[in-house]
Design goal:
Largest sheet: none
Helix content: 55-70%
Number of strands: 0
Shape: elongated
Number of helices: 9
Radius of gyration: 18 Å
Structural class: mainly alpha
Distance between the termini: 34 Å
Length: 172
């Protein structure tokens, strides 16, 4: 997989864009092979960034599905030498636990700022208890404010529709 230097821009930028495009379109049965290939790039930081974006996209799609755990195990094996990518996969696993309501207050308050922001921002219904906890004890003012906002949207949505939906997503 190579990029043409005549296309303009630094070669690593071109390869990054090419990798993102290839990873977005890769069939599931070729995903592992392509990730290994990308991670062999001579620019390790760029390659890790491209794979990280891919992992974020795929994890968001698989988050509540049955295939999530097996996918995370495979991706963890493939990225064993990449500390940032391993940590991100762990954070996605913690986010899944929150969404599926299998979490503890200690796990959530000790989680990274990324995890706390993701809990607040996930379009999947985050438990009100998690939002309340983050509104009070989130790592940053940004997390606490976003959790309060999300809680007010959930409460407004519930009063208006009589359902217990997640309210508007910050991704929308």
């Amino acid at each position: 997989m190579t990029a043409s230097p005549s296309a303009g821009g630094p070669p690593e930028h071109l390869r990054f864009a090419m990798y993102l495009s290839a990873l977005e379109a890769v069939p599931e049965d070729e995903e592992a092979r392509l990730i290994v290939e990308v991670l062999r790039d001579t620019d390790a930081r760029m390659a890790s960034s491209a794979v990280g974006r891919h992992l974020d996209r795929r994890a968001a799609v698989l988050l509540t599905g049955d295939r999530f755990a097996a996918w995370v195990r495979l991706m963890t094996d493939l990225t064993a030498e990449q500390l940032f990518l391993r940590r991100r996969l762990e954070e996605w696993t913690r986010l899944r636990a929150v969404v599926l309501q299998a979490w503890t207050a200690e796990e959530l308050t000790a989680g990274s700022e990324w995890l706390q922001r993701a809990v607040v921002a996930t379009p999947t219904a985050a438990p009100r208890e998690a939002l309340r906890l983050l509104a009070e004890r989130g790592w940053t003012r940004r997390v606490r404010a976003a959790a309060r906002t999300r809680l007010s949207h959930v409460a407004t949505h519930d009063r208006g529709s009589g359902t217990s939906g997640a309210g508007p997503s910050v991704f929308e």
